[in-house]
Write a structure and sequence with these properties.
167 residues; alpha+beta; Aminopeptidase; 5-stranded antiparallel beta sheet; 3-stranded antiparallel beta sheet
Length: 167
């Protein structure tokens, strides 16, 4: 079952069969440059389990990004509840396999999640929490209409908070 469908992609729930493909992405130092460290296999499995729990608890989470053409899992994108400066927020987050960078897949997937969040879930505000040096993620946010709102100390360091408000 697809949760989100775009021109070239579909986003679906993760399952335990996705751990190896996802680990290839999360264990890559370049892909995880703005995280404290790449993930080991156990961290990747725990990450999948956490998102499966989110689907049940929140009705959404990070989903597998798959190419329609081949069904290959090339990353993740989705909606995650976060607390920023004491306020409940919903973030659009994403990771794309570096073999598929610079092809617009992150922008396309994030746009699909933005539409899902605003249309299906009726959310009026979405954010992205981005390391201020992560220019590619900033471009993705800006292409989807997000603007820098502020900087906040979250996840043990300063991040830029980009936001989009739909009325």
């Amino acid at each position: 079952m697809f949760v989100v469908e775009t021109k070239r992609l579909y986003l679906r729930h993760f399952n335990n069969e996705d751990i190896a493909a996802l680990h290839a992405i999360f264990s890559d130092a370049e892909t995880m440059k703005y995280y404290p460290a790449p993930f080991n296999l156990i961290q990747t499995k725990n990450w999948v389990d956490k998102n499966i729990d989110r689907y049940e608890k929140d009705g959404f989470g990070l989903w597998g990004v798959c190419l329609k053409e081949t069904n290959e899992l090339i990353g993740d994108c989705g909606l995650v509840k976060q607390i920023v400066d004491g306020k409940n927020e919903v973030e659009i987050g994403y990771h794309i396999n570096k073999n598929y960078w610079s092809r617009g897949f992150a922008t396309e997937a994030a746009n699909g999640c933005m539409e899902y969040g605003t249309v299906q879930l009726g959310l009026h505000r979405l954010i992205s929490i981005i390391d201020p040096f992560n220019r590619p993620s900033i471009r993705v946010a800006e292409k989807n209409g997000f603007t820098k709102e502020k900087e906040s100390f979250i996840f043990n360091k300063i991040h830029s908070i980009y936001s989009l408000t739909k009325r």
